[in-house]
# Entry
Amino acid sequence: MVSPLPVLIEPDVETTMGDGTILRSTVYRPAVDGARYPVLLSRTPYGRDLAVNSAYLNPATMAAHGYAVIIQDCRGRYGSDGHFVPSANEASDGAHSVRWASQLEYCDGRVGMFGRSYFSETQWRAAQTAPTELRALALGISAGSNANNGSLYRGGAFELGSRFGWGHASASLNTMVREHAGDHLGLDRELATWQELDSAFADGSVFEALPINSLAAQMNSFMNTHILPSAGDEPGNDFTRLWDTAADKAVEIPTLHIGGWFDIFCPSTLEQYERQLEASAGRPELRPRLVLGPWSHTNLSGTFPDISFGLGASSNEVAGYGDLSAIHRAWFDATLKNEPESLAKIPEVLIFFMGENRWRGFEQLPQPTRSRNLYLGADGSLRDTADRVGVVSYTYDPHNPVPTVGGATMIPGALPAGPARQNEVEEREDVLVFTSDPLETELTVFGEITAQLFASSSAVDTDFVVRLCKVAPDGTSIGLADGIVRGRWREACAADGKFTPGLAPSLLEPGTAYQFSVSLWATACTFEAGERIRVQVTSSCHPRWDRNLNTGALAYDSSETVVAHQQIFTGEQMPSRITLGIL
# Structure
């Protein structure tokens, strides 16, 4: 075993961008004079010395293993100069930083990048400029794709909870402190307002505001510039197009993808992996790797308030191959140090299957071996064949929306993400429940899930939410996956429930039956014999998604609401159903 190297930590290392703006980094590198090592670069808007960064990839242990690790504050954030505009400068700043890092006296000319969430977007944008010094990426819970399919909007609805949560908890405070540097009285006033808003996030009351833009007076400049207006915009807008350019084409370098089934960017992780896999055909040195755990965006423990998948589900011990730092180390040893044996024992794809609560290894992401349609019955059943013609009704009142309970969210305060108990939600009169008979044999649900609802509304616009649950023999119902479609955007979401830009919205004709397609994203879960499959149908999940007022107007600038009377049709002529991939 090679002894670890002594480590030197250098704070406030400066890099001058092409326009003269200075960015600052903390560097962890071996304290060995004259030696050269690969550089691992990470670029963050959240503070380069944030302790949580080390829990994901420990820079000190990586440096002790023979890497120079550079963690840099993005332009306009924390120690770096300039002005922060989300996504706008990461390509040029990233490419410049890669070239700078490769020319440092202790770098051997090879650079890899790592990090999660926005850090991943900075990787993609740097890589899209194709700097020759950049040799590998390690992308965690990656942003930069699917702006209209869950990152910013979903099925035409706005991702209210996650976007407001990100802006408030992750971005706005540092911007406010920078804006009032030297103005202590002004900062005190802004901090008092921010703290009031933070209390409203903590108890969820901030999301009760109608119209949403009435929150402007409580929000600071970052929120009012970059977050609040997006609640009044529609999917397919300019920022969604900018968002998607980060990773809309493959890059010719090897990539490691790390994601979670309950992450807000799960579809992006899968889509980015598959795009890289396709581009690597005939080029084995470019084959991507994938790790997909039972994790949310901020919780990689595998343990949630209502369920734990065991210690083996944690990112601290991934399938017996060590923690995520160990996975990163093996990846970069292979791709930057030409030590392929470091990855020889680790499968190219590691996927955690809930229910059986274990990791499975594959050569590449498997595809379902078949699909299974389960049809909604007017009697609350869920069967393999469509029952007789029927209809089930409920009423949706925007002033009493169904609360968000778990799911792939990122909402600060008292609304944790992940698999959550749904029994209380299912007791509501505005939530329809369809449940299968107890399964006679084990069933593994894997891959994408879609639903087709045949439904009508008394309103000119409304939403339909579909959720897949696993029901234990004792009746406990745990949510696994869900999705939404906004009525006026039904044509843009036709067939697979994924939003297609370029189609105009169209209001509903009250009382007319339409087919609504809903994407529930994907999962990997084994149902044991005796367990049941359940599907919920409702019209809200608030504050995850902005509530539909049922008037055709947005909650952003309207408070006028209409109660909607909804009908879900069943039977052979209108076969409302959910389609599951089976492995």
